[in-house]
Design brief:
The protein is mainly alpha-helical. Helix content is 74%, strand content 10%.
Length: 116
């Protein structure tokens, strides 16, 4: 009977470990996506900065290409870029917290990872 409890406990720990790892992977994926989008915003802003303010440019809004001027496009782009940086900071904090939780859980349950 003790053997069955031990096997059941081992399976529960494996499920919990998998859940922790999956959560960390999902957050890491989101971090990568936000970093990529932030870099795209940065590149566009760097391209538009030296241009005259009244120059025509195009912006994709909800899948529709809209004609605007540089002075109309730059402020919302900066706002979006700042928002992405904030989201990225929050995701990095969340990742660190989850990673610390996982480490505490591993120590508490005496988990040793054989293969990562």
């Amino acid at each position: 009977m003790a053997q069955q409890v031990s096997v059941k406990r081992q399976q529960e720990l494996q499920v919990q470990y998998s859940t922790y790892k999956n959560n960390l992977q999902q957050i890491a994926q989101k971090i990568g996506d936000v970093e990529q989008e932030s870099e795209e915003h940065k590149l566009v802003l760097e391209t538009l900065e030296p241009l005259p303010q009244d120059r025509k440019c195009f912006r994709m809004i909800n899948g529709v290409l809209v004609e605007r001027t540089v002075k109309d496009v730059v402020p919302p782009l900066k706002t979006n870029s700042d928002g992405l940086k904030q989201v990225l900071d929050d995701l990095l904090k969340q990742y660190k917290v989850r990673q610390e939780e996982m480490e505490k859980w591993k120590k508490k349950n005496n988990i040793q990872v054989v293969q990562q």
